[in-house]
Amino acid sequence: MRVLGIDCGGEYTGYGIVEQDRRGSLIHVCSGAIHLPPRQALELRLLTICQGLTRVMTDLSPDVVAIEDVFYAVNAKSALKLGHVRGVAMMTAAQAGLKVVAYSPLSIKSAVVGYGRAEKSQVQLMVARLLNLPAPPEPPDVADALAIAICHLHTAATLERQQASAR
């Protein structure tokens, strides 16, 4: 299974594709971040995200897209902008015919670090270790996107084992 993880952000939208081979080993396919100039009009930043994610989906053919679930923010304006980015990511996946699954920040950190309240630096280090990367991914949005993809792979494997044992 090839999973595209997307970390929606106002300045950077991180993405990462991770596969799992038949032995259960995680394989880093690609990762990066779409930079969004803060002074650019919102609609142009959203277009940049759509174009960047479309390119990734077209070039690398993921099977599913995983994103972070909606969370509560103190600043309503920031939450609204993040909601726009998240909506564009989901729409882009739907246009590519891909299913979108969402995970809470707590679930993502638990799946990768083993602790739901882990710091960003801990997520970066664990992602690097799990994917045998030479260094922690930068910016942190890239590590978060890879963590979201890893979370989906771990969750899907667990569900598959549960279904097999129920038969």
Name the features.
5-stranded mixed beta sheet; globular; Nucleotidyltransferase, domain 5; alpha/beta; single chain; 167 residues; 5 helices
Q: What can you see in these coordinates?
A:
There is one protein chain. This protein has a single domain, classed as Nucleotidyltransferase, domain 5, CATH 3.30.420.10. It has 5 helices and 5 strands, in the order βββαβαβααα. The protein has a 5-stranded mixed β-sheet. The chain has helices at 42-60, 76-95, 105-112, 120-130, 140-166, and strands spanning 2-7, 12-20, 26-35, 64-68, 99-103. The longest helix has 27 residues, at 140-166.
What's this entry about, in short?
With 167 residues, this protein is α/β, with parallel strands linked by helices. The chain has helices spanning 42-60, 76-95, 105-112, 120-130, 140-166; strands spanning 2-7, 12-20, 26-35, 64-68, 99-103. It is built from five helices and five strands.
